[in-house]
Amino acid sequence: MWIADGWKDYELIDCGGGEKLERWGDRLLVRPDPQAIWNPPRRHPGWRKPDGKYLRSDTGGGHWEKNHLPGQWQVRYKTLTFQVKPMNFKHTGLFPEQAANWDFAMERIRAAGRPVSVLNLFAYTGGATVACARAGASVCHVDAAKGMVQWARENAKISGLEDAPVRWIVDDCAKFVEREIRRGRSYDAIIMDPPSYGRGPTGEVWKLEDSLYPFVELCSKVLSDSPLFLILNSYTTGLAPGVLTYLLETLISKKFGGRTESQELGLPVTESGLVLPCGATGRWVCD
Question: Which one of 69, 139, 146, 231 is least enclosed by Cβ atoms within 10 Å?
Fold first, then answer.
């Protein structure tokens, strides 16, 4: 398991009973988590009096129950800064377990000893974009949601990367990659964080089980002749790490060589000393 244990402004304090107690900066949040099926003793006082708690509705969705919780605030991860905003569907705009992938990408970029271009697809609020730009890469950030791209730009700005070489693109990811292939553009690294289900700006439907294999195959055509790495996340589905390995070995390793490794991502739990699984990631790297 790849564990995101480098945080100071985020802490997974405890989890269980289908919920997790987290510290985001100096704010305590309680949010649902379907992986936490055990029953903890809930000794921490934050369980009883959090700054914010997301409550699910019996009819779908849910709402935040707030106790002096601001609309947004900042957290830092090493040299990166992010805006946190409690949103609908329990999200905060940041997936802290992805810090394990940020560290990996930054290390590969810095060790390359040459200019590196990164394509970040389904890029959300830009955690990976900001990390790669901080490491010195040029980045193309693509997401179908205009609001998420604007949020990512804010994260780059507060991280001191407002003038970094980042292209901000609001588009359907598959259609964008197809156009980049026709334009003859290529990238040294690709990061993709596809949802289980989604729609593009003009109604394009994305369903992971049907779309992932042809999409990764499409992306293989936009990798440069000397690619560095590819990261494929699957935190919203039940796809096992071994499935991601097989997919990347079939589509990427056979074409470029290199090697693939897939693991669960995890967050350390302070109260129990255990690690909460947070989905799977596959990484292909050149030799």
Answer: 146
Q: Does one domain contain both 52 and 180?
A: no
Domain that holds residue 126: 96-285
Q: Hey, what long-range contacts does 35-40 have (CB within 8 A, 24 or more apart)?
A: 35/276, 35/277, 35/278, 36/276, 40/14, 40/15, 40/16, 40/271, 40/272
Cβ-proximal residues to 141 (8 Å cutoff; 6+ apart), any chain = 120, 123, 126, 129, 149, 152, 166, 167, 168, 169
Residue with tokens 């494929």: 232
Q: What tokens appear for 130 in the block?
A: 């900001």
In a domain, residue 88? The reply is no
Number of H helices, E strands in the chain: 7, 17
Give the chain's domain count: 2
Q: Per-residue pLDDT tens for 127-172?
A: 999 999 999 999 999 999 999 999 999 999 999 999 999 999 999 9
E strands present in 196-235: 197-199, 205-207, 229-234
Q: What's the length of the chain?
A: 287
Say yes or no: 54 and 116 in one domain.
no
Rg for the chain, CA atoms, rounded: 19
- Predicted TM-score (pTM) of the model is 0.94
